Q: What sequence folds into this?
């Protein structure tokens, strides 16, 4: 009797793992087969989806996705200045910046060089050592410190930024504040740019709204419609920094109302809506609201009145293309995509994959425009 | 007392009886599991009519479930029932004043006094009774008093705290209360025991799985993604936890009601104001004691140092006597800690207890005797020294006992050296002496960022490039230069830390050093670095530069 029990138990113990392993293997094989089937199916669906979404760009006056370039890539003269600066020669950069143009244009030219100096400022230090009184060098130095501060901070949300990053950000911005004071002292009295440079400093150092308004008064006293100044101030006034939806919209509305037609401040209203909708986690259909429609009409009118050589024209067209597509006005959107030619501007460049996003939205606009044309015919 | 009396749905004794019934139920649950398993086995055997191999498997399974239940619920002994109580025994002969107070309280509450008083290091007071039969048969009583209470309370407040503890025994529900307390302990013990077994099981299984995965990998196969579990013990622990939650819900209400009743006894005996003051002081003393032990008493622990005998606990008095600290504590006492009430805590939130006491009519007795309670303790220094002997871990015996000023100075230097150790290793790796002058030489040789590269970095600092990387490194360089300079000065006896009871130890630098220190550090860390100011500052303070020494 006991012998049988012992025999049975030993037999079971020996058999158990063999049976279980068999079962497990069979189950695993089944699972693998099922996974493969699902993957094949998903591939086919994606294939069909892509086929549905394909357009022939040339049929619609558009360039192929691969032939597009990101806006902001340096022009030849700028590229040469950057190359020389990288090699330690500051003179081409100084010459490139010494253009007799509007404050906004000078501001725009300074950007890439300041970004370079935020990475490596050997050339800038050489410049400033040789010409300590050069106001342009002081300006680039200030802007470079601002970019440097943001490189330390990263552009992530405040909750993703470490205490170490915040300390560095703050310390370098304080240096930038000192540099800006120096730039103000060196620059001609009527140059707004040393003041414009302080807008981002104010944002990072949490200046109060009252203190910021004083700074803004200095800017607008020298150039009331400075485009870059308005674009930076819009960020200061948005809810994620030191304002609110209301303050932001009031700021941009007043600026647009005061500006002459063709200033290209009106498209900035679209950026304001973008900030608002993103903050509130609105659905994409928010872009179809009547107030957005009115802003789009105003921006289109501003664009129509603007000089075709306006340095900010691609910004205007980019935001219009984006918002018109989202607002289900594909025919007008397509016009903007066509006018952009080979450039992918803001807001597309703010996305992780600007080219893909640009092409996706462009397809939506083309298909919408084609459908609308068919309906009208 | 307003709030606590509102919920009179069930009287305290009814609740206590319910709690006792639930406790019995807890054991019945365990018994039920065992009987159920046995019944199942027998029924299966009868149904099948013969011995089948399958039956053996089911038997083995029920044994696997039944064994932990028997082992944990019924068979383990609880240590607390026997053995010596912690702390130092305060005899009637040695401590007549303290005993006189205890006797007075016992007499006035009509409660049988303790057989012995024990001094313990915790912020706590209590009366323990060696009861038998789950609290139904009375036994010897022990009064436990925490040394911080003697140090931090006035006589009046101590009287109130002790009266509260005796108050528990003047309450009629106390027999059943003792039972609920014993029940809580038994239930916790069971759940804890099962989890403990489950943890061990899980650890064993995890090790086995890891070994298996390694074998599979060695054979070139994918390791299975099986995970270690706690086995049958975990399941049982879950089951008993559910029951324990129910039990605690019922018994906590009993416990809380008894706390309010005991507070009332304390107020009657020691006065309303003294009782409220004592209640407010308890959480403050608790945090003061934690703070004192970590920041003062054990400040030199890693450096092998302790304060003089008797001061490990006694030094709390110095902290509490400091006017600034006393002010901080007084401010702290007013904003009572607003913690989420713990549903399994038998004590009601202290804020509610204070409110209940303060809602009593003024008894005109004021705060009571305001002499420090420590005055009741005869030969306090010797007693506190004895307390150290019985309560500190054995390693304490190997520590050197030094006076407070020396303790702080040496401990802080040891901390500073430790903080400077990674920089020292980095310098050694660069082939430079691990001193402030070595670091200054590195800066002068343009190797500052080579040095910071060898220091520990955050993820973001490691990812940064160009100037941003330098800005991450600059504060590191500055801090390490500062550390190294301070260590060098302290080692040369030119700087040192001074004990302060009102704040952290203060670093005293040579005269005029501090004013120029920041600027000198900034200059040494600038992009166009200049180490001359810092070198001059060190030399000026009397620190010989290495070149001077070799001459």
A:
């Amino acid at each position: 009797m006991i012998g049988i029990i012992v025999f049975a138990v030993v037999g079971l113990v020996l058999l158990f793992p063999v049976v279980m392993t068999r079962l497990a293997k069979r189950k695993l094989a089944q699972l693998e087969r099922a996974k493969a089937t699902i993957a094949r199916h998903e591939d086919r669906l994606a294939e069909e989806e892509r086929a549905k979404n394909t357009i022939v760009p040339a049929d619609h006056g558009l360039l192929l996705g691969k032939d597009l370039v990101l806006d902001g890539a340096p022009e030849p003269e700028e590229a040469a200045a950057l190359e020389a600066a990288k090699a330690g020669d500051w003179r081409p950069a100084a010459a490139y910046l010494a253009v007799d143009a509007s404050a906004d244009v000078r501001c725009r030219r300074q950007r890439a060089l300041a970004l370079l100096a935020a990475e490596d400022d050997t050339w800038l230090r050489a410049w400033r050592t040789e010409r300590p009184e050069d106001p342009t060098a002081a300006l680039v130095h200030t802007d470079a410190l601002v970019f440097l501060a943001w490189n330390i901070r990263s552009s992530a949300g405040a909750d993703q930024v470490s205490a170490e990053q915040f300390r560095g950000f703050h310390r370098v911005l304080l240096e930038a504040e000192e540099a800006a004071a120096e730039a103000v002292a060196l620059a001609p009295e009527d140059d707004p740019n040393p003041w414009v440079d302080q807008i981002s400093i104010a944002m990072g150092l949490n200046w109060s709204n009252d203190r910021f308004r004083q700074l803004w008064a200095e800017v607008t006293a020298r150039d009331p419609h400075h485009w870059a100044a308005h674009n930076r101030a819009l960020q200061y006034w948005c809810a994620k920094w030191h304002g609110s939806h209301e303050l932001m919209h009031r700021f941009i509305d007043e600026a647009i109302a005061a500006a002459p037609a063709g200033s290209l401040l009106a498209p900035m209203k679209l950026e304001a809506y973008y900030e608002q909708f993103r903050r509130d986690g609105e659905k994409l259909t928010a872009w179809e609201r009547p107030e957005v429609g009115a802003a789009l009409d105003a921006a289109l009118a501003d664009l129509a009145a603007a000089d075709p050589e306006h340095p900010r024209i691609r910004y205007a067209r980019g935001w219009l293309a984006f918002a018109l597509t989202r607002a289900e006005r594909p025919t007008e959107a397509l016009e903007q995509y066509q006018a952009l030619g080979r450039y992918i501007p803001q807001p597309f460049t703010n996305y992780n994959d600007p080219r893909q996003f640009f092409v996706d939205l462009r397809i939506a606009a083309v298909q919408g425009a084609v459908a609308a044309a068919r309906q009208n015919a | 007392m307003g709030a606590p009396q509102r919920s009179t749905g069930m009287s305290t004794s009814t609740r206590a009886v319910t709690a006792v019934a639930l406790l019995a139920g807890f054991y019945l649950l365990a018994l039920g599991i065992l009987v159920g398993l046995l019944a199942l086995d027998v029924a299966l055997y009868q149904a099948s009519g013969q011995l089948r191999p399958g039956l053996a498997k089911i038997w083995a399974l029920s044994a696997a479930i039944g064994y932990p239940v028997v082992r944990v619920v019924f068979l383990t002994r609880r240590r607390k029932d026997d053995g010596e109580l912690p702390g130092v025994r305060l005899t009637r002969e040695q401590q007549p004043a303290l005993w006189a107070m205890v006797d007075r309280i016992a007499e006035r509450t009509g409660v049988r006094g303790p057989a012995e008083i024990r001094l313990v290091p915790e912020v706590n007071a209590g009366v323990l009774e060696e009861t038998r039969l789950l609290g139904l048969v009375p036994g010897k009583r022990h009064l436990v008093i925490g040394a911080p209470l003697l140090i931090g309370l006035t006589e009046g407040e101590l009287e109130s705290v002790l009266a509260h503890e005796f108050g528990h025994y003047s309450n009629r529900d106390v027999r059943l209360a003792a039972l609920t307390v014993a029940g809580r302990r038994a239930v916790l013990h069971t759940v804890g025991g099962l989890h403990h077994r489950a943890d061990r099981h899980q650890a064993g299984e995890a090790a086995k799985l890891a070994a298996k995965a390694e074998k599979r990998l060695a054979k070139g196969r994918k390791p299975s993604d099986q995970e270690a579990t706690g086995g049958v013990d975990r399941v049982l622990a879950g089951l008993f936890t559910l029951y324990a939650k129910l039990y605690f819900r019922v018994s906590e209400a009993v416990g809380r009601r008894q706390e309010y009743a005991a507070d009332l006894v304390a107020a009657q005996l020691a006065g309303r104001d003294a009782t409220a003051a004592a209640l407010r002081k308890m959480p403050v003393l608790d945090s003061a004691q934690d703070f004192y032990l970590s920041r003062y008493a054990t400040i030199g622990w890693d450096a092998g140092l302790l304060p003089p005998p008797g001061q490990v606990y006694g030094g709390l008095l110095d902290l509490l006597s400091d006017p600034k600290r006393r002010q901080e504590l007084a401010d702290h006492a007013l904003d009572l800690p607003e913690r989420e009430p713990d549903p399994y805590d038998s004590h009601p939130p202290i804020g509610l207890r204070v409110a209940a006491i303060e809602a009593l009519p003024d008894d005109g007795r004021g705060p009571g005797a305001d002499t420090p309670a420590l005055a009741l303790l005869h030969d306090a220094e010797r007693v506190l020294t004895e307390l150290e002997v019985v309560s500190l871990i054995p390693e304490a015996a190997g520590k050197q006992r030094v006076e407070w000023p020396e303790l702080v100075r040496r401990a802080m230097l040891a901390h500073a050296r430790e903080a400077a150790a990674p920089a020292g290793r980095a310098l050694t790796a660069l082939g430079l002496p691990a001193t402030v002058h070595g670091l200054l030489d590195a800066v002068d040789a343009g190797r500052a960022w080579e040095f910071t590269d060898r220091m520990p970095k955050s993820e973001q600092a490691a990812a940064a490039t160009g100037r941003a990387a330098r800005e991450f490194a600059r504060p590191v360089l500055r801090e390490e230069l500062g550390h190294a300079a301070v260590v060098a000065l302290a080692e040369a006896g030119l700087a040192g830390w001074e004990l302060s009871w009102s704040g952290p130890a203060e670093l005293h630098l040579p005269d005029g050093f501090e004013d120029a220190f920041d600027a000198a550090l900034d200059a040494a860390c600038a992009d166009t670095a200049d180490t001359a100011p810092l070198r001059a500052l060190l030399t000026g303070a009397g620190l010989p530069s290495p070149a001077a020494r070799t001459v």
